[in-house]
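Re-run with default settings, no changes from the original entry. Doing this only to confirm the output is reproducible before filing.
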Amino acid sequence: MQLTQEGCLARRARMWEALPEDVQWVLIADPRHVQYLANFWVQPLSFSGGERGLLLLERSGKATLMGDNFAIRSAAHKPYVDREILTPWYDHKHSVINRDHALFQALEKVVPEIAGRTGRVEAEWLPLGAANVLGAAAIDGQLGTLLRKLRRQKEADEIALMKHCMQAGDAGQAWLRENLREDMTEFDIYRGVQEAAVKAAGRPALVYGDFRAANAEHHKTGGLPTDYTLKEGDLFVLDYSVVLDGYRSDFTNTMSIGEPSAAVVEMFALCQAGMAAGEQIIKAGVAAKDVHAAVAGPYREAGRPELFPHHAGHGIGLGHPEPPILVPESTDVLVAGDVITLEPGAYQAGIGGMRIEHNYLITETGYERLSNHIISLT
């Protein structure tokens, strides 16, 4: 599963439609946007993890990928470009140069081709050294903002890749349900969830998120696992993401160690009611703040608004979180193609804390739920 050439070309077409007609070329610098438009993603688990390439797109349709020889060779998939301009960085014979300088040398080779033509550069991510190679005329601090806006409306290949992430995430949640027990450590759970998720993904994947126990003493916790050992009465919050080619899932369940108390059951029911209320209104054109108000409604009606102190959800894709943000003062509006979460939670000192979460593709008339894990305390 990967981005398709058809999808990358569709995203490029939407970008060109949004740019002024006199712009004849763009230089893409954000690695996420190089992936978004050309399917080039340096495998983060490779020895070139953290390196990058630059992408030159021309309105004529020509696409050029630039980078050092090892970064380009470490691509997760074959990129959809017409040519690659590589700078030798390591050849097993000579000392290496600064890899950033190798990237700039590759860029130097295309400068004569674009000189005198109107273009734009993704200034938010372009290194100063590369800007010095290009000159300042093409620098545009809004190109990255434009691409981030376009990213909200996912193409079919992006949805397919995210569904693959969801399937892997579902497998990790299922592992927890089958294996959770007293005397496990948080790190034991992390290892088991990671193994199940990566196996379901069928290839190397990044796994991150909250793998933490909550209880009466620590009712709101988060982050990567510790060596804490679970005990009777704890609540384990599994709120995690599986990342493939930069795209991700993000969904949650909370499970009780032993029989949950009546107070915990009541809090969990409020979370479920909040999620159901959010599902009733999400569709294209709905204000994000109204979604938050809907999710928070059951807490208000129960006289317990203080239990729900955070967002009601957010967008996901190449970023986490990304617009739309479902908070009381949000100015975002849902659009068809958004992938969002609904994420109600409840936290009370002396009792514990919890969250639940599903992922949804927003449509003109409603939504398609993308995550399929079981949400329940036991």
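The longest strand covers residues 235-244. Residues 156-369 form a domain with the Creatine Amidinohydrolase fold (CATH 3.90.230.10).
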